[in-house]
Amino acid sequence: MFTNLKIGVRLGIGFAVTLSLLIAIAFIAVNNVSSINDDIKMMTEDRFPKTVQANNLVRAINVIARNLRNAALFTGAEQQKALEAIPPQRKIISENLEILEKTIKSEKGKEILKRIGLARVAYVADQDKFLELLKAGKNAELPALMQGGLRKSQSDYIAAIDELIKFQADAMEKSGKKAEESAANTTRLLTILSVIAVLLTILFAWFITRSITRPIGEALNAASRIAEGDLTVKIESNSKDEVGQLMTAMQNMIGKLTQIIGEVRTAADNLTNAAGQVSATAQSLSQSSSEQAASVEETTSSME
After folding, report:
1. What's the rounded Cα separation, in Å, for the pair 256 and 246?
2. The whole model's pTM is what?
3. Which secondary-structure segment (H or E) carries 279?
4. 215, 209, 211, 258: which is closest to 237 by C-alpha?
5. Is-contact 67 83, C-beta < 8 A?
6. Cα angle, residue 287 at apex, residues 283 and 291 outer, rounded to 5°
7. In the 8-state DSSP scheme, what is residue 46?
8. For 201-226, what is each residue's pLDDT tens digit?
């Protein structure tokens, strides 16, 4: 069936198959690269910023703890400086928690945020208690609070934040592994598809070339034998493409030439037979003339 198609159609099919494979490879590459880009974007624009915000919380808590200690140790301007440094850090914590509450969508993440909020309430309460004792001048009670409730609430607060940091770090690691696996799968798939594309292209090229050159070679061989005067050439073609039509035309030409030569040969034989009859007639006339001449000579002799 394929050999009955026109040569242009066959070439078009071959190019169409090759082009389709290239489009498929390009589509898969773009799709997988887009997936990898989404994973990377998730890490850089979601996972990592949340980790940074959580670390900002820990850093602000440590700054507050340091300033609470300084406020307990120093007096006068140094103490006031330490107390004035606490509100900005609380503002930093509030801003970062607000961002985290808006961006964290997973159930586990929300659960961790809830624990952070509860730990924050306890820690802020101990901070306020510390500041009240400091304001009331009850400095003797400060060490017990710092080593007891305040220390515990701060540790619980930081532990809850560390859990969020670990959660985001694990999510980043999963996204990284997913991107790595996707890249490896993409490379493997593109390699397989490229090999298939190359093999199919070679196969189609060989098949199309063979379907064109083989009958053309037969036609050339037949033409050479005809040129040498061999009209016994038999050209067989089952295809209906341009080459098949050419070979059919050559076979018809051979038949026509054979017919013409047969007719010429018959005419030549007839001409040869006619020439023989004319020659026999001429011989008969020549013999009659000789006999007539002899009779005339005899008549002349008798008259003399």
Report:
1. 15
2. 0.58
3. helix 242-303
4. 215
5. yes
6. 170
7. I
8. 888 778 777 777 777 777 777 777 77
